[in-house]
Amino acid sequence: MESDQVTYEMLRSIVEEEDSVQAANLPSSISEEKLSNLKNATDLRSITNLSEEMSIRVWNKLNERLDKTFRSNHRGLGSTEPSLALGKINITYVSGHSARTFTIHSTETEMIGRKSNRFGIPLDKTVSSKHITICWYSKERSFVIKDEGSLNGTYLKSSKTELTPGKLIELGNVIYQVEIDSASKTLTLKAKNKKVIDSAQDLPIMFDSSRSSVTIGGIDGNCIYKINDPGLDSEHVRIDWIEKNSPIMTSLSDKQFWIRLQPGEEIQISMIPTSPRSKPTEIRLGSALLTLS
Predict the structure, then answer these.
(1) Predicted model pTM
(2) Which terminus of the chain, N or C, has fewer Cβ atoms within 10 Å?
(3) Cβ-Cβ contacts under 8 Å for 270 (sequence gap 6 or more)
(4) Confidence grade of residue 274 (pLDDT, cut at 50, 70, 90)
(5) Which residues have a Cβ under 8 Å from the Cβ of 292 and sit 6 or more positions away?
(6) Of 169, 172, 134, 132, the residue nearest 154 (C-alpha)
């Protein structure tokens, strides 16, 4: 194992610095294979039985120590990015009845599109020749996905987002563009692909002192705004109008909703889960659904 990768001795040393009691409960040994396959604090917890809080603290310190070790071992070699075992992301896509997974490491920059597709992901004609780039951002300990100005957009599955003017949101089968009139407290979701759902209409939503929150869902629900779209659950999303801030959309459905990235927009995929229930990131290029973990 290379000296700039995590070792059991390094792991035990950090845990002992943080909490001697939990250090005493560590396994007597952990295989190099398991250590080299760590991707996040949840993985670390699964092989060490550390508490959730301790796993995150130890994970952060492991990354800091590996960075320092790398800089010491590679000083003067012109390297700017450490080859960390912890810096990698798995991307899974489903084709037919089978799923395939490939891995991008921190030393790699991967472009995915119809003319840049070394992993053989099935991509339709709506995907641009150079659609997205995925690379490692060491300062934030995260991977970055950047839309390369694709024609038909990159979509990110989300459970919560700020609604800003011009933002494109896909609810069910319809894509809506956000328009906001702060003076009248009116938020309009303007239907952009009405040909998909014949009944799709623009949705003007009024807020006032007596109503700062509304719900949107299918026609069989008890929502304030009902839409005749089979892709919507009975209660699909809630929108909260927050004074002096952008309205917030929150998912009420397991289906969540999709946000279209602006051309050139970047999103960060952290290697540290925000909670034990954190879901993998999902993005869509045309009809291709990719799960990042």
Answers:
(1) 0.70
(2) N
(3) 140, 141, 142
(4) low
(5) 89, 90, 91, 143, 145, 269, 280, 281, 282, 283
(6) 132
